[in-house]
Amino acid sequence: MVTIKNSLLALLCERPHYGYELRQEFESRTGSTWPLNIGQVYTTLDRLQRDGLVESMAGDAEGRKVWHVTPTGRDVAAGWLTRPISRPAPSRDELAMKLAIAASLEGVDMPAIIQTQREATARTLQDLTRTKAAGGDPASPHELAWLLVVDSMIFQAEAEIRWLDHSEQRLSEAAAGRRAAGRIPRTHEADAPRAATATRTKGER
Amino acid sequence: MSDQQLLRLDGVSMHYGVGATAVVALAGVDLTVDRGELVAIMGASGSGKSTLLTIAGGLTKPTGGEVIVDGRWLSELDPRQLAALRRRTLGFVFQDFNLVPALTALENVSLPLELDGWKTSKARRAARDALGVVDLADRANHYPDDLSGGQQQRVAIARAVVGGRSLILADEPTGALDSTTGELVLRMLRHRVDAGAGGILVTHDPRHAAWADRIVFLRDGRVVGSSESETVDALARP
């Protein structure tokens, strides 16, 4: 995987490492979020060596190799750190797909689907926030690296909730538009638009 | 109502106007807040979340239902008793801080106690302690204008909890702050709640609501769902 390859290469720019050390460094600096097995580390190092980006040297008495970065490897790592990440074509996001399909079906309770997802995502957000709040020394470099990773997950969960709010409003406006055009009777409304809510009378529900 | 329960809303409704033009701001909301619990209220504009907060704080009388704060039924209190309850039990935190500009941080925090009849020296001592809790002991003699937004909001939190007030009602307390300062303010709020207070946090920001133990979702004046954090270790620390 390109990301692992570049991450290991960047770590080797700092100083040479044994394979098992490299795995420990990777995991502790990314908050143990993406566990690596040792086999993956050695396969990646072999590929990096094949491409001329790292070299191995005899290390300790037990025959373990020490891995060094080559000048070309250093250039590749620098390029990875400074260039923006280009994301591939839109991923097959299950939630987006589910909402799009659901919205096209008759008789689906969209507000309920959205609310169920909102609660599940909010719970994830609460769990992540609680973990983050549970202490740790912000001055330690490993804690800082971990916080960056947790924050990234927190912002992704937040984005999903905001997108759900936005989708709910969009669907409600679309339903209001269809009602105005006389295509669906009011009793089939999925979610009353807010403008209508403000003038709803006490006994109407 | 258990001793742990600081706030209970029983079927609280709020209607403005009558007849065909009536607007329903809240429609039969039930809610409880225990000691040591922070509850976030989320919902779109007009969902009723700010109305709920003013009713919980005894600032607005609901058109239906009951509000019980620390064992006292608000409907049974006369205006003088209600004002006393607000001074002694409730602390408000607003988006725009609401500090008195002509008073120092210390005076702002001690003001509610002095209004409640505390001796100045005793009130100032309690205020100094409260400022210490929000890490602002060294800013006690600064005026609000000389403090950053985050510091002003921390003074407001100190004011909300000074003198043993137990229920903090916060309306978008991070709305005027940048992202990391907002997080610091929420940490302080969380800390006060963990120390035994109870709190309601009204916010439209999911990331801030996530600091609560429970998030209650409002739509059109009704509770449509809630989420509660269960696990402590979502992600292992290195």
What this model shows, in words?
The complex is a heterodimer of chains A (205) and B (238). Chain A has 205 residues and is mainly alpha-helical. Chain A has two domains: 2-82, Arc Repressor Mutant, subunit A; 94-193. Chain A has helices at 2-14, 19-29, 38-50, 71-82, 94-104, 110-133, 141-180, 194-198, and strands at 17-18, 54-58, 65-69. Chain A has a three-stranded antiparallel β-sheet. In chain A, β2 and β3 form a beta hairpin. The radius of gyration of chain A is 26 Å and the shape is elongated. In chain A, 22% of the residues are buried. Mean pLDDT of chain A is 83; it is low at 187-205. Chain B has 238 residues and is an alpha/beta fold. Chain B has one domain (5-227): P-loop containing nucleotide triphosphate hydrolases (Rossmann fold), CATH 3.40.50. In chain B, 32% of the residues lie in helices and 27% in strands. Chain B contains seven helices and ten strands. Chain B has helices at residues 49-56, 79-89, 105-115, 120-133, 149-161, 179-194, 206-209; strands at residues 5-16, 23-34, 38-42, 64-69, 72-73, 90-93, 167-171, 198-202, 214-219, 222-228. A six-stranded mixed β-sheet of chain B has the order 6-7-8-3-9-10, sandwiched between helices. In chain B, strands 2-1-4-5 form a four-stranded antiparallel β-sheet, covered by helices on one side. In chain B, a hairpin with a 2-residue loop joins β9 (214-219) and β10. In chain B, α3 packs across α4, α3 packs parallel to α5 and α4 (120-133) packs across α5 (149-161). The longest helix of chain B is centred in the last third of the chain and has 16 residues, at 179-194. Chain B is globular and about 55 Å long. At the A-B interface, α2, α6, α7 and α8 of A face β2, α7, β9 and β10 of B.
